[in-house]
Amino acid sequence: MALTQVANVATLPGIVRAAFAMPDVHWGYGFPIGGVAATDVDNGGVVSPGGVGFDISCGVRLLASRELHRDHLQPRLRALMDDLDREIPRGVGTKGVWQLPNRAVLQQVLTGGARFAVEQGHGVAPDLQRCEDGGVLAGADAATVSDRAIERGLGQIGSLGSGNHFLEVQAVDRIYDRAAAERMGLNEGTVCVMIHTGSRGLGHQICTDHVHQMEHAMRRFGIEVPDRQLACVPVQSTEGQAYLAAMAAAANYGRANRQLLTEATRRVFQRQASTALDVLYDVSHNLAKLEKHLIDGQLRTVCVHRKGATRSLPPHHPELPADLSEVGQPVLIPGTMGTASYVLAGVPDNPAFFSTAHGAGRVQSRHQAARHTNADMLRKGLEQAGILVRGSSRRGLAEEKPEAYKDIDAVIETSHRAGLARKVARLIPLGVVKG
């Protein structure tokens, strides 16, 4: 089914080079999750909301402690996880840690992203230097966001959500590239926190709104697609520009969301472990971006759709922070509850528009995963393995059991050997907060 979707994506107007499937590919809405496709903006290239998904700018942020070693955290781990359990909002419809007073402030979030959050006291300027696009995606226009999306976004900023979203306390287990790891501030035993979440109900509503608009607009442009979920319009059309502006607004909401959760996490670590946490990197894996790439010997502007795929910039790329230029962009790829996560780095000559996998990739639906799983036994088994789980629902835990996903080590090895990114460090879970 997922490979059929890859073939369908390859029929989109203006597509260049190929439709790509990442090592974690699985079935999704229109586009497969783990799909990458670029369209030529100046030659009828289209943008498709299905190529981004409903959780716009869902992504991963990794925090690292400068001095806390896992051995020193261990005696305080249970108290720390209990504190995170209290402080991190999650679940369907949950209110976030930042209660915005009105729509005007939300509109500033939509245009200012993590930068606006920092300006309001939720973080420090160095955080932004380690964020994709400096924490704010240009081109956002709050006026393109529907009233319903605004309503859904007002109360949720600074919350994890549900499903596969999580906040995980981790420790570096293995180093593969010592020079790169040291530049990123990672050593064996370094305590880290991985935050995986996106734009919550606001992003979902924006996708819904624009899919419906494009379904009607396609006829006017003479576009036919093999799957109605691939609804699309030319990037340069009024509808295409409106979607990109609304998508950028949702991306900024997602980035501000992770910034707020960073500050909540820092407060807990300061209370329980007297330690600071630095942002190692923050990158989205559900986004469409206008980028310059060499196509048939010419530098072209293309709309790169990455749906469940992580941007992976090579060393010396101009968008990298100066202190990471020599090693390449950190690529953050989470596993599942009970399995490892990875930090990789971008490499030159990546054929998939500098993209790689974003996670382990599901092999069971949520219904299949939950059907024969006892959540209490799952939690107990993980705790016996040294992983403390703080979940908001039994059903949510069962749906996210490790067996529902591919082998993350195999996914990473494939990414490494395929020239999509190179391994830097392996991280293992100590405790996880789940929606």
UniProtKB/TrEMBL annotation:
InterPro entries according to UniProt: RtcB, RtcB-like_sf
Cofactor requirements of the protein: Mn(2+)
Keywords: GTP-binding, Ligase, Manganese, Metal-binding, Nucleotide-binding, RNA repair
Protein residues bound to GMP: 164-168, 285-286, 334-337, 341, 358-361, 434
Binding-site residues for Mn(2+) 2, renumbered to this chain: H196, H285
Descriptive protein name: tRNA-splicing ligase RtcB
Substrates-to-products reaction catalysed: a 3'-end 3'-phospho-ribonucleotide-RNA + a 5'-end dephospho-ribonucleoside-RNA + GTP = a ribonucleotidyl-ribonucleotide-RNA + GMP + diphosphate; a 3'-end 2',3'-cyclophospho-ribonucleotide-RNA + a 5'-end dephospho-ribonucleoside-RNA + GTP + H2O = a ribonucleotidyl-ribonucleotide-RNA + GMP + diphosphate + H(+)
GO molecular function: GTP binding; metal ion binding; RNA ligase (ATP) activity; RNA ligase (GTP) activity
Chain positions recorded as Mn(2+) 1 binding sites: D55, H165
Superkingdom, taxonomy of origin: Bacteria
EC number: 6.5.1.-
